[in-house]
């Protein structure tokens, strides 16, 4: 039996969202009834983006954040997108703005211009150069959602990164680079790797903590780590389910999960719990997996995070947390009054959001 501890994100995400919900309840109880609003911009109909936005809207509703979706057609011109961003920047009712990526092919060359057009005071994703610069200086009120989620998972399991050798594979602007900054600010020893890194196993095998975010399904197996390593998987990849059963999927659609599982259990001499797992596995056309070969890691490292159900849950929770923080800053409200701390303010010379 594996003695590897599985790191899950649900408890950490639930704790963050509980703090957000409590703070928003206090905001709503005020005489001016402040309700944080997050504007979401989507260009085109990327299937994955549609799913992600629905998840964000559902979780926002759970904690009391209002969402406003601006869905633009695939053939939208950059100037139209820019005009929308400028309008949202100026709208006092909007506290946070996110631009769902990736943009359609014709707009991809303008991704950076679009991201920096979002006012730093409403930049819920923390992609604006000013906010990233404040992260660099360790003076930020808001931080990049996914990279900070990695640290929150480690914090939740009482893992102190100070003095630890952390190897990050993947140097994207969304994860690798801001995570390296935050780790350095916490006195970790950081090594960053990319697709051009030679003899990468020799490096990853020395890691106390390995973080991978390259978008390559199940690339890293146990040969990349040592037995004491803590492995955090940030990758999200879709794999075709070779065991997909269309007939069983049709039955599930017509009869529901319980009846389908009962029939499957009887036909295959299984207990109901096993049948439910089998039906679930065989009625999905795709599986979501990370960059880690999760099953192969079990028993071969100290701790490993799971995909789905790991860092991804923290990404949405932090997006909502950033929206709340931006709302408090815009209304010049005291953080402590709402059960929050300005953790990233170090001294009286703070320049955040001035």
Automatic annotation (TrEMBL):
Pathway: One-carbon metabolism; tetrahydrofolate interconversion. SUPFAM superfamilies: Aminoacid dehydrogenase-like, N-terminal domain, NAD(P)-binding Rossmann-fold domains. Catalyzes the oxidation of 5,10-methylenetetrahydrofolate to 5,10-methenyltetrahydrofolate and then the hydrolysis of 5,10-methenyltetrahydrofolate to 10-formyltetrahydrofolate. Pfam families: THF_DHG_CYH, THF_DHG_CYH_C. NADP(+) binds at residues 170-172, 195, 236. Belongs to the tetrahydrofolate dehydrogenase/cyclohydrolase family. InterPro entries: Aminoacid_DH-like_N_sf (IPR046346), NAD(P)-bd_dom_sf (IPR036291), THF_DH/CycHdrlase (IPR000672), THF_DH/CycHdrlase_cat_dom (IPR020630), THF_DH/CycHdrlase_NAD-bd_dom (IPR020631). Homodimer. Residues 144-242, 278-326 form the Tetrahydrofolate dehydrogenase/cyclohydrolase NAD(P)-binding domain. Signal peptide: none annotated. This is Bifunctional protein FolD. GO terms for biological process: L-histidine biosynthetic process; methionine biosynthetic process; purine nucleotide biosynthetic process; tetrahydrofolate interconversion. Keywords: Amino-acid biosynthesis, Histidine biosynthesis, Hydrolase, Methionine biosynthesis, Multifunctional enzyme, NADP, One-carbon metabolism, Oxidoreductase, Purine biosynthesis. Residues 7-125 form the Tetrahydrofolate dehydrogenase/cyclohydrolase catalytic domain. It catalyses: (6R)-5,10-methylene-5,6,7,8-tetrahydrofolate + NADP(+) = (6R)-5,10-methenyltetrahydrofolate + NADPH; (6R)-5,10-methenyltetrahydrofolate + H2O = (6R)-10-formyltetrahydrofolate + H(+). Its EC number is 1.5.1.5, 3.5.4.9. Gene3D superfamilies: Leucine Dehydrogenase, chain A, domain 1, NAD(P)-binding Rossmann-like Domain. One of its GO terms (cellular component) is cytosol. GO terms for molecular function: methenyltetrahydrofolate cyclohydrolase activity; methylenetetrahydrofolate dehydrogenase (NADP+) activity.
């Amino acid at each position: 039996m594996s003695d590897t501890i599985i790191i899950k994100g649900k408890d950490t995400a639930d704790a963050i969202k509980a703090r957000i919900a409590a703070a928003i309840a206090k905001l709503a109880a005020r005489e001016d009834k402040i309700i944080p609003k997050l504007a979401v911009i989507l260009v085109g109909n990327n299937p994955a983006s549609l799913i992600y936005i629905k998840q964000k809207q559902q979780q926002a509703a759970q904690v009391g954040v209002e969402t406003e979706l601006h869905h633009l057609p695939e053939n939208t011109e950059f100037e139209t997108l820019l005009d929308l961003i400028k309008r949202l920047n100026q709208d006092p009712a909007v506290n946070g703005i996110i631009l769902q990526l990736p943009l359609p092919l014709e707009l991809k060359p303008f991704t950076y211009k679009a991201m920096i057009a979002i006012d730093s005071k409403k930049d819920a994703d923390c992609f604006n150069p000013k906010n990233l610069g404040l992260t660099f200086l360790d003076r930020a009120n808001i931080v990049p959602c996914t990279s900070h989620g990695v640290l929150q998972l480690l914090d939740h399991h009482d893992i102190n990164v100070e003095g630890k050798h952390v190897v990050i594979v993947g140097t994207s602007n969304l994860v690798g680079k801001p995570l390296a900054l935050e780790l350095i600010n916490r006195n970790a020893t950081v090594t960053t790797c990319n697709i051009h890194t030679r003899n990468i196993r020799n490096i990853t095998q020395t890691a106390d903590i390995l973080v991978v975010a390259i978008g390559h399904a199940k690339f890293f197996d146990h040969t990349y780590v040592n037995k004491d390593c803590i492995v955090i998987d940030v990758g999200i990849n879709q794999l075709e389910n070779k065991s997909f059963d269309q007939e069983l999927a049709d039955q599930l659609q017509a009869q529901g999960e319980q009846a389908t599982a009962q029939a499957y259990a009887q036909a295959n001499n299984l207990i109901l719990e096993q049948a439910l797992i089998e039906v679930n596995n065989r009625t999905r056309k795709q599986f979501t997996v990370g960059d880690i070969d999760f099953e192969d890691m079990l028993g071969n490292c100290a701790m490993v995070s799971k995909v789905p159900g790991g860092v991804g849950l923290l990404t949405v929770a932090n997006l909502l947390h950033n929206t709340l923080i931006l709302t408090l800053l815009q209304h010049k409200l005291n953080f402590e009054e709402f059960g929050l701390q300005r953790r990233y303010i170090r001294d009286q010379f703070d320049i955040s959001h001035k």
